[in-house]
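thought: user wants a sequence for this fold. calling inverse folding tool.
action: design(structure=
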C-alpha cells in the first residue's frame, strides 16, 4: 500500500478517513470495485492469492507440437495417444526396475488403445482377476505421476463422471501407507468384483492420455493427401486445450468453404490425385456426381496416363474401372482448375502471377508449351477437348454446372462449417507462447535480410504487421457466406487462393506452385519451385534473432522458432535444427507421400518442465499392428535442451498472467484495509 506525504499529495491520490493519502487513481478504484464483486473481502482475496502463488510453483505443463499431418489420421492418432513417447518414458521411469520390457510395452499399448487391447487380453489371459489387480495398480501409479503437476481442481475437472470419486481417492492414497493399505486394496478389489474393471481401465487410460499433455500445438497443414483429415479435425476440435497455426493446405480448404472456386477446384483435384474421396464424400458430404457423370462421358476416349491417381495413401482398394473413373474426374477437374486460376489472376493483377496462366501458351497442333521462361516444352498430354484455344479460360456450360454444384456443396456442408469455424476460433497465422514463436511456413524476407513488404488491398505490410493483417483477412473471408460478397469481401475470398500458392504468401513463400509443369512437362527444369529468401537466410542466427524480436521474444532467453511446410530430407543430409538451435523445422514427412523423399515419418516437439525434446519418428505401419503386435512408433530424440532447473508455471506466459492477478488482488486488499473500498464481510 503506497502512502504519500500529506503536505504534497499526488493529484490523483485518494484521501482516507484519517487524512492519509493513498496512491489510487480513480480509474484503478473503478477497476478494483468491479474486482471486489468476485472477492468481496480481505479473506477471499488473500485465499485467492495463496492459491495463485501455489499454482505458480507447480511444474510447467507439457506442450506437444505437431505439423504437416496431411490427413494421416492413424499416425496422428497414435502420436497423440503416446504423446510422442512421453507416456512410454513415464511408464519406464515408474515401473522400470520392477517389470520386464514386454510388460511395460503391454501397459503402454493398453493406455493407447484400452478397448481394443482388453478384447485381446480376454481371449489370451488365463487368470483375468490376477491380471486386473496387477494392471489396475500399475495404471494408478502412472496416473498419480502424470496428475502430480496439476492442481486437484484441474485434475478433478478432467475426471470421468462415473468414476470421479473413486479416482480421486486412488490418486491421493497409496498402498505404501499402512493406515490406508486395506482401504486402497479394497477399492481395487471391489472395482473387479462388481464387473467394472474394463470400464474403469478404459476411463483411467483415457485420463492418463489427457493429463500427459497440457496443450497441443498444430503448426499447420492438417488437410490433403492422406485419407482422414476430417477424422483428425474431429479429434482436434474435441481436444482439451489446443491451438492451430494455419498452413497453406488448411487455408485452401478454408477458401473452398468461403466459396472461392479456384480453391474448390484445387481441393477436389488433390483429393482425386491421391484417390482420397472419403474425405470429400463421406467426411463432408460433397456431391461429386455431376463431376463423375460429365467425366465418364467427356473423357471416355482421352489419354489418362498423366492423371492416374496415386493409390498408396488410399485406405480403399479400387477396381480397374473405379480407378479409370477417378482418373477421368481428375483430368476434368485439373483443366477446370487451370481455367479458374486464369480468371482469378486476370481479376487480381496486383497478385503478379501472370506467369501461372499457361493455357493460352499451348500449341495444340505441335503439342508444346511456350513457357514464360522462354523455352518450348513438349507436353505429355495435350488432349483437352473442353479448352477452346480462342478463349482457353472460359468454362464450358457443363463445367459451370459442375462448379455450381460443388460450390453449393462446400458452402452448405455442416460438418465442414464446424471444422472451419474450429480453425477460425482456435487458429491464427502465428503464435508466440512461452518464448517459442510458431508459424507454418515463413515470414517473407528480402535478399538483404529485411522484412519483405507484401501488398494487401492496396497497402503494404511486412513482418508481424503482415501476419496480423492476414489474420483479419482470413477471419473476414470465412465468417460470412460467399453470397453476401461485396467488392471488398470478394477480394478477401480471392486472396485466400493467393495465400495457398502466392509467391509472397507467408504460408507458401516459393516462386510459384508448378502444378501445370509437374503434371504435363517431363523436363524437371520448369518444375522447380524456387524457395523464398526466408529459407535461404533462416540458417543465420542474426536473421532468426531479428524475427524473434519482431514478435516480442527474447533470443537471449532461449527463444525458438518452430515451423514446418518444407519437409526435412534426412536422406539428403538436411537437418531439422538450424541457426544454432534458434530454428526447429518439424516437418519430416508425416504424410506417406513424402516419406520416400525424407526417409523418416516426421518430427514432433515436446516441451515439458525439464526441457525441450525434438523427436524423430519412423513410419507408422498401422493401428492394427500397434494393437495386436504392440508395435509403437520407433522414435529417437534428435535434440534435447535440458534446463539448469525444472521449469514451473511461474516461468510461462500463464505465470505472467497469474502474477498480474496477484498484484491486482494485493492492491484490492490495500484498498479494503484503508477503507477506500468497503469489505462485504
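)
observation: tool returned 681 residues.
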Amino acid at each position: 500500500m503506497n502512502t504519500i506525504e500529506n503536505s504534497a499529495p499526488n493529484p490523483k491520490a485518494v484521501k482516507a478517513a484519517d487524512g492519509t493519502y493513498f496512491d489510487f487513481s480513480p480509474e484503478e478504484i473503478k477497476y478494483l470495485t468491479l474486482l471486489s464483486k468476485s472477492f468481496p473481502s480481505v479473506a477471499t482475496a488473500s485465499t485467492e492469492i495463496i492459491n495463485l502463488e501455489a499454482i505458480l510453483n507447480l511444474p510447467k505443463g507439457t506442450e506437444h507440437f505437431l505439423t504437416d499431418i496431411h490427413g494421416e489420421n492413424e499416425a496422428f492418432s497414435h502420436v497423440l495417444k503416446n504423446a510422442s513417447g512421453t507416456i512410454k518414458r513415464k511408464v519406464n521411469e515408474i515401473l522400470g526396475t520392477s517389470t520386464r520390457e514386454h510388460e511395460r510395452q503391454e501397459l503402454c499399448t493398453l493406455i493407447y488403445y484400452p478397448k481394443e487391447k482388453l478384447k485381446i487380453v480376454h481371449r489370451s489371459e488365463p487368470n483375468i482377476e490376477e491380471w486386473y489387480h496387477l494392471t489396475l495398480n500399475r495404471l494408478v501409479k502412472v496416473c498419480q505421476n502424470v496428475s502430480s503437476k496439476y492442481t486437484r481442481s484441474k485434475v478433478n475437472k478432467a475426471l470421468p463422471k462415473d468414476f470421479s470419486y473413486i479416482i480421486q481417492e486412488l490418486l491421493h492414497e497409496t498402498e505404501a501407507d499402512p493406515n490406508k493399505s486395506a482401504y486402497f486394496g479394497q477399492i481395487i478389489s471391489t472395482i473387479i468384483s462388481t464387473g467394472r474393471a474394463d470400464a474403469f481401465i478404459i476411463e483411467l487410460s483415457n485420463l492418463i492420455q489427457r493429463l500427459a499433455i497440457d496443450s497441443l500445438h498444430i503448426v499447420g497443414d492438417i488437410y490433403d493427401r492422406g485419407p482422414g483429415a476430417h477424422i483428425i479435425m474431429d479429434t482436434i476440435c474435441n481436444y482439451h486445450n489446443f491451438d492451430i497455426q494455419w498452413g497453406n493446405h488448411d487455408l485452401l480448404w478454408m477458401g473452398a468453404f468461403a466459396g472461392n472456386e479456384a480453391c474448390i477446384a484445387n481441393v477436389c483435384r488433390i483429393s482425386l490425385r491421391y484417390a482420397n474421396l472419403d474425405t470429400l464424400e463421406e467426411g463432408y458430404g460433397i456431391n461429386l456426381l455431376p463431376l463423375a457423370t460429365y467425366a465418364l462421358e467427356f473423357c471416355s476416349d482421352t489419354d489418362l496416363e498423366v492423371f492416374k491417381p496415386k493409390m498408396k495413401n488410399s485406405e480403399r482398394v479400387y477396381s480397374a474401372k473405379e480407378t479409370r473413373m477417378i482418373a477421368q474426374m481428375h483430368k476434368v477437374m485439373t483443366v477446370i482448375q487451370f481455367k479458374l486460376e486464369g480468371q482469378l489472376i486476370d481479376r487480381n493483377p496486383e497478385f503478379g502471377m501472370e506467369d501461372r496462366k499457361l493455357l493460352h501458351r499451348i500449341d495444340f497442333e505441335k503439342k508444346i508449351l511456350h513457357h514464360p521462361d522462354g523455352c518450348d516444352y513438349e507436353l505429355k498430354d495435350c488432349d483437352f477437348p473442353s479448352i477452346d484455344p480462342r478463349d482457353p479460360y472460359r468454362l464450358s456450360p457443363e463445367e459451370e454446372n459442375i462448379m455450381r454444384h460443388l460450390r453449393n456443396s462446400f458452402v452448405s456442408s455442416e460438418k465442414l462449417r464446424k471444422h472451419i469455424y474450429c480453425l477460425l476460433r482456435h487458429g491464427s497465422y502465428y503464435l508466440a507462447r512461452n518464448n517459442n514463436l510458431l508459424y507454418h511456413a515463413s515470414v517473407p524476407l528480402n535478399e538483404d535480410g529485411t522484412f519483405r513488404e507484401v501488398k494487401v488491398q492496396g497497402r503494404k505490410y511486412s513482418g508481424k504487421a503482415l501476419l496480423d493483417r492476414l489474420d483479419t483477412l482470413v477471419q473476414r473471408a470465412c465468417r460470412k457466406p460467399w453470397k453476401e460478397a461485396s467488392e471488398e469481401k470478394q477480394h478477401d475470398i480471392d486472396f485466400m487462393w493467393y495465400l495457398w500458392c502466392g509467391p509472397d504468401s507467408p504460408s507458401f513463400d516459393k516462386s510459384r506452385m508448378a502444378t501445370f509443369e509437374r503434371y504435363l512437362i517431363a523436363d524437371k527444369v520448369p518444375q522447380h519451385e524456387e524457395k523464398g529468401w526466408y529459407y535461404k537466410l533462416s540458417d543465420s542466427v542474426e536473421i532468426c534473432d531479428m524475427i524473434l524480436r519482431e514478435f516480442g521474444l527474447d533470443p537471449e532467453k532461449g527463444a525458438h522458432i518452430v515451423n514446418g511446410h518444407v519437409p526435412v530430407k534426412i536422406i539428403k543430409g538436411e537437418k531439422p535444427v538450424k541457426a544454432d538451435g534458434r530454428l526447429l523445422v518439424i516437418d519430416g514427412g508425416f504424410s506417406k507421400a513424402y516419406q520416400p523423399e525424407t526417409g523418416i515419418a516426421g518430427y514432433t516437439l515436446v516441451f515439458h518442465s525439464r526441457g525441450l525434446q525434438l523427436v524423430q519418428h519412423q513410419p507408422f505401419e498401422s493401428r492394427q499392428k500397434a494393437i495386436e503386435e504392440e508395435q509403437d512408433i520407433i522414435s529417437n530424440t534428435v535434440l534435447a535442451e535440458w534446463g539448469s532447473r525444472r521449469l514451473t508455471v511461474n516461468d510461462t506466459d500463464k505465470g505472467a498472467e497469474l502474477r498480474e492477478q496477484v498484484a491486482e488482488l494485493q492492491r484490492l486488499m490495500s484498498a479494503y484495509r484503508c477503507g477506500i473500498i468497503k469489505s462485504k464481510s
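thought: summarizing for user.
answer: Here is the designed sequence. The longest strand covers residues 635-642.
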